[in-house]
Amino acid sequence: MFQGSNNGISTTTSYKVVLPFYVYAALAFLIATVFLVLNTGDIIKHYFHPYTLAITHMMTLGWGTMIILGASHQLVPVFIEGRLFSNKLAYTSFILAAIGIPLLVYGFYSFNMGWPARCGGELVIAAIISYLINIMMSMVKSKTESVHAVFVFTAVLWLLITASVGLLLIYNFQYHFLPDDSIDYLPLHAHLGIAGWFLLLIIGVGSRLIPMFLISKYNNVKLLWWVYGFINGGLLIFIFIFLHKSNRQFYLAPLLLIALGIFLFGRFCYRAYKERIRKKVDEPVKMSLLSVVMMILPIVFIFFIILLLMLTASENIRLIIAYGFVLFFGWITAIILGMTFKTLPFIVWNKVYHHLAGKQKTPNPKDLFNASVFKWMSLSFIAGFTLFVCAVLLKISFMLKPAAALLLITAFLYNWNLLKLVFHKPALL
Amino acid sequence: MNVITNDNIRSTIALAALQNVIDPEIGLNVVDLGLIYQLDFDEAEKKLYCNMTLTTQFCPMGESITDAAQEALQGAFPDYEIKIQLTFDPPWRHDKISEEGRKFLNR
Predict the structure, then answer these.
(1) Mind telling me how many Å the CA of B80 is from chain A's nearest CA?
(2) ipTM of the complex
(3) Does pLDDT of A10 surpass 50?
(4) pTM, full prediction
(5) What does the pLDDT read at residue B49?
(6) Which residues, including other chains, have CB under 8 Å from residue A20's CB and lie 6 or more apart?
(7) Which of B73, B97, B96, B75 is nearest to B84 (CA)?
(8) Average of per-residue pLDDT across B50-70
(9) Separation CA A73–CA A83 (nearest Å)
């Protein structure tokens, strides 16, 4: 009579695995914005300044990567319709990265490429390998093929390559075994991480979550495969051009491919938005959609960076700093600010109210954080981000500190709301 | 909503009880969301089989939703043993949402 079974439940990843990543990332964001306020003047001097390197790695690893690792331990089982292979590997990833990241950041901050930076880099790579094994084994054990999981897996491979190149650059400081100085390889290291890790991962996860949260009828797996092909193809061409030291105008080819991938993903999100069943879009999803729109900015900036390199053969440092800023403090931060308050409330709700489901009236997950604090956080983020980018590009020095202070407020409000969620106690209605 | 059943009268009571089970993300009850596929009453064994689905397999809220459905049905039929059975064949689709559900989501 019935073909059903209880497969598909009772196998979601434990909150104990996920929450440490979220808390760590939130604190890293707070520390990064404190750095930004204290060292604003130094940070905009050059992208190879020790403080700029420190803050960039705090943002990319401590903030972006840690929260993505945490959330993906919860989300990958949804994508592959199977369970996470190992909680122990997830804890291992957390511990290794949690120790490695501060060591690495300290190494950059003090510009000491000795043992702290090396050891930090090695621990981060070990954390990535642990995560990669976990994701790979989870996918192997699942019978479901998922384009989203392939995006995630490929992104982690790029992350491993990015981190390995980064560690090579640290060693190259002392031993000079590479043909060029470490600074010359920074564009390679940075863009492997930006396009290979963050872009692929955010598209892979976003293309599943955005239609899901909008309750949209739209889905287009074929289009996502095209996006996958364009971005990976663009990256491979970029590596080839970079390693062969080809003319700078050739960089427009991979840029075009990656921009096309981003455009198609933007179109995917737009169609999902237009074909949504739930008309009301909540604030966290709005913030996530804003981050999709913000993907235009780095494309425009990098286009002008390449154009100026072609025309003048010299770097426009301010434009490069602004480019990095719109990526890490803009696009990546916006999607995390939004998605945290779409994913974490469910994890906490399950932890606190799961056993009461159906027995008593319980609050909704969206009621577990303060909506007005979220609104103020969003406003301070948009204001701080816009001011900072304008101040860098237009050389308005006095505007930098207030802009950084607004981002510090954003981080503070984010932490406040996140900790309120994490330490939520049962409130029965 | 097209719920298959072998007992129309009892299934009306069961569905009324299940309308109190809300998907926490969507805010809509599992009946109007179209998650309930089949309700079968085994009078001899005093068992109620509820065949249902989730909007997404491995949905993080899945266990909470099925537990809540179990509780709701047990409350409505205290003499019956409730058997919740999950199926993803056929998978849930948007067209399973009832007219009332669509009105709710269109607000």
Answers:
(1) 17
(2) 0.79
(3) no
(4) 0.89
(5) 94
(6) A70, A94, A98
(7) B73
(8) 87
(9) 10
Smallest Cβ–Cβ distance between B63 and the set A10, A217, A359 belongs to A10
Answer whether B68 sits within 8 Å of A358, measured CB to CB: yes
User: Which residues from A are below 8 Å from B when comparing CB atoms?
Assistant: 1-12, 74, 77-78, 81-83, 212-213, 215, 217, 277-280, 346-347, 349-350, 353-354, 357-359, 364-365
Query: How far apart, in whole angstroms, are the C-alpha atoms of residue A362 and residue A265?
Result: 37
Distance CA(A25)–CA(A20), nearest Å, equals 8
B86, B102, B105: residue with CB nearest A8: B86
By Cβ distance, the residue of B25, B38, B102 closest to A365 is: B25
Say yes or no: B28 contacts chain A, CB-CB below 8 A: no
Indicate the SS3 state at residue A163: helix
Q: Is the pLDDT of residue B43 over 80?
A: yes
Residue reference for tokens 């089982």: A77
The CATH number assigned to the domain holding B100 equals 3.30.300.130
pLDDT at A63 over 70: yes
A15-320: CATH superfamily: Cytochrome c oxidase-like, subunit I domain (1.20.210.10)
CB atoms inside a 10 Å sphere around CB A73: 24
For A376-400, what is each residue's pLDDT tens digit? 999 999 999 999 999 999 989 899 9
Show the domain range for B44: 4-105
Angle (CA) A38-A41-A45 rounded to 5° is 135
Half-sphere exposure of A363 (CA within 13 A, CB side): 17
CB pair distance less than 8 Å for B71 and A357: yes
Q: Is any Cβ of chain A less than 8 angstroms from the Cβ of B43?
A: no
Both tokens assigned to A156: 């982690």
Q: Is the pLDDT confidence value at B33 over 80?
A: yes
d(CA A63, CA A101): 10
Task: Over range B49-67, report the average pLDDT.
Answer: 86
Ordered by start, the domain boundaries in chain A are 15-320, 321-429
Residue A300 has pLDDT above 80, yes or no: yes
A276 backbone dihedrals φ, ψ, rounded to 5°: -75, 150
Question: What pLDDT band is residue A11 in, cutting at 50, 70 and 90?
Answer: low
Q: Is B85 on the interface with A (CB under 8 A)?
A: yes
- How far apart, in whole angstroms, are the C-alpha atoms of residue B41 and residue B51? 11
Question: Domain count of chain B?
Answer: 1
Beta bridge partners of B41: B48
